[in-house]
Design a protein that fits this description.
Strand order of the largest sheet: 2-1-3
Distance between the termini: 46 Å
Low-confidence stretches: none
Bound molecules: iron/sulfur cluster, FE2/S2 (inorganic) cluster
Structural class: alpha+beta
CATH topology of the largest domain: Ubiquitin-like (UB roll)
Shape: elongated
Helix content: 10-25%
Largest sheet: 3 strands, antiparallel
CATH architecture of the largest domain: Roll
CATH class of the largest domain: Alpha Beta
Length: 351
């Protein structure tokens, strides 16, 4: 099979349609060769080699599945399971545990005695969004590499050694006290649910719950990131509750599986009791009262014209929202320039 400069065995086998399982690999990250689930046999080599971090070479004969590889992978996965102290039923719905799915697919033994937990929990991290569950971590370093290579902030790192190896921060500080941007990418890439959202609104719902994913475009700014809204009770009289937001797989453009803190976590406005659903206009006593759109627009026009009459057109400024469409923002600048004759117009995403 022909291959390009720098391509790994994993790249080539995937192109050839062969299944090679991976846990620590992510196409957005440099290969780490940390988990060894992708081992393949290279003719003439004494040891099995990780497909994700071994470059393809001229004349290389690679076997992706045989008895030796299967046995090795089963034992490896069984070892991960004894270090991952959660049964499959405890894995979070909507974020399937890649480890359990792989162990089942490759017939790994599941009855090995669990290891005592030697990995320390992260002390007192009061950030509202992300928690680290040490008992589920298998030290694959996907989260720390993502934080470093994609997010570019290196807020988390692998710490300690051997069975105590864990994910930590400098001085074990809470994420708020680090360079963390709370993007949640570490949660998205974790293959075991060890990095997890703190705030799924219905996280404690019954296990038979099935979250329905709805692919949509984030409307917090003009980038157009793709996101999956995970809805509990979807189709229940047209209603459902948003349980969490997840990112589609890497390669989904334009966001390539990444989200920012707003896109991933700022969704509780959807059912918030303070959410404005109808226009409000102040009455003579200064109290906000429900109004029709016609009444609200008339009140806004009257107020704007009054400011213009008293202080001139450049006393007015129009601030639009990055949550509006391009067309809506276009109309706001038209309103400012044509109806009121001012260039004082802005919108935070500057689209
Ligand atoms: S939330 Fe983002 S920035 Fe913070 S630790 Fe995770 S990947 Fe790094
Ligand atoms: S938290 Fe998840 S992604 Fe990070 S090292 Fe542990 S298992 Fe891997
Ligand atoms: S996927 Fe290759 S070593 Fe982890």
């Amino acid at each position: 099979m022909p291959f390009g400069d720098g391509e790994t065995i994993l790249d080539v086998t995937r192109r050839a349609g062969r299944q090679v399982p991976t846990l620590c690999h992510d196409d957005r990250l440099k290969p780490a060769g940390a988990c060894r689930t992708c081992l393949v046999q290279i003719e003439g080599a004494r040891r099995l080699a990780p497909a994700c971090s071994t470059k393809a070479g001229d004349g290389m004969q690679v076997t992706t599945a045989n008895e030796r590889i299967d046995e090795h992978r089963q034992n490896l996965l069984a070892l991960y399971l004894v270090d991952h102290h959660q049964g499959h039923d405890d894995c979070e719905d909507g974020a399937p545990c890649e480890l359990h799915a792989m162990a089942a697919a490759y017939g790994a033994p599941t009855d090995w005695e669990p290891l005592p937990l030697a990995r320390a929990e992260r002390p007192n991290d009061d950030n509202p969004y992300i928690e680290f569950r040490a008992d589920r971590c298998i030290a694959c370093a996907r989260c720390t590499r993502y934080c470093d290579e994609v997010e570019g902030v290196s807020a988390i790192t692998m710490a300690k050694r051997g069975i105590e190896t864990t994910v930590s921060t400098a001085d074990a500080l809470g994420l708020f006290d680090t360079t963390c941007e709370l993007c949640g990418g570490c949660v998205a890439v974790c293959p075991t649910g060890a990095m997890a959202e703190k705030m799924p609104l219905v996280a404690k719902a019954p296990p038979e719950r099935k979250l329905h994913k709805v692919r949509t475009t984030c409307n917090y700014c003009g980038v157009g990131c793709q996101m999956d809204i995970n809805v509990d009770g979807y189709g229940n009289n047209g209603k459902g509750q948003v349980a969490k937001i997840t990112s589609p797989p890497p390669g989904t453009l334009p966001s390539d599986g990444n989200l920012c803190v707003k896109g991933r976590f700022a969704y509780d406005f959807i059912d918030h009791p303070d959410r404005l659903k109808v226009p409000l206009v102040r009455n003579a006593q200064g109290e906000l009262k429900e109004a029709t759109w016609e009444e609200a627009l008339a009140a806004a026009a009257k107020g704007l014209r009054a400011v213009e009459a008293e202080h001139g057109k450049d006393a007015l400024a129009f601030v639009s929202s990055s949550r509006c469409t391009v067309e809506e923002n276009y109309l706001v600048q038209k309103l400012a320039r044509v109806a009121f004759g001012t260039n004082n117009v802005h919108q935070c995403a500057a689209t």
